[in-house]
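Subject: for your reference before the review

Hello V.,

The reviewers asked for a structural picture of the protein, and I figured it would be easier to keep everything in one thread rather than splitting it across files. Below is the amino acid sequence we used in the manuscript, unchanged from the supplementary table.
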Amino acid sequence: MSRSTDRILGVIGIALVAGFLVYLFTFRPFSASWDGRFQDPEGLAIDEAGNLYVADEDPGTIFMLDPSGNVMARADLMPGSPDRISRGDGMVVLALGRIIAIGTHQLHEIELLPSGPRVVRSIGERGSGLGQIEDAEGIARDESGRIWITDEDNLRIQVFAPDGAFAGTWSVPAQPEGICLSKNRVYITFSKDHWVGCFSRDGKLELRFGKKGSDPGEFLVPDYACFSPDGELYITDQKNDRIQVFDADGRFLFLFGGSGSAPGRFRDPEDIVFDRDGNVIVADGGNRRIQVLTKRGDPIRVIR
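And here is what came back from the structure prediction:
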């Protein structure tokens, strides 16, 4: 082998190593304290006792954490099956240790026990018929206990009664992602089209806000939405790595965050909930952690 060939191979080798290091430290933020609990936390829910439920998208694991962040229970696979118990999307809480999570083309009511999960029931099956599910992304529970989901590939919202029976549906103009309910309104994020819609409970579009961009009030993939205890609408602006806050009529109020791995910064923020103290909890997926912040975005603590 000639010297010139050796030099070329050496340069290629150095470039590959340098490229890997750039990837590792730029796109996979390093933390000496990361213990491997989360890979890509996405879905969140919280119960009345302050226990936090986290759906980790990549492995499909659901964690139940106490208010201090200690693991109380976890669920990985469907009992007796190689299928993941969760796709990592949002969840709703029914009672202490009992949730409804989004699985593959189904919803699963799961009881999380220290000895392992128990699937109480499954709702729906794959398809486009009434009550069938193709690709659920967002989930919410109303004051009557009905379950609302965004059925993304079927371009619709579906509603299920507390007993799991199909209760209604209406179409939406684009692929829906996140969903949250407030009074008689339904707020839906259209992440691929970079806007948020406010609908009546029977599916009439009442207002829309946002467009593609990075200025205040604009979005690059609005993902999940959640109302604060004082009625402000918090939306994870995923590819802008920030949280934007609006009033109930879609008027921009303020934002916080930005790209990075320092406390209060985000990489691909996803689901968002509020705790009993009115603090906001964000699934900081790209940083493989959960962040707890004040409602104005000041960091309080990190859960890994």
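For the response letter, the relevant points are probably these. The chain has a mean pLDDT of 89. DSSP finds one helix and 24 strands in the chain.

Happy to draft the paragraph if you're swamped.

O.
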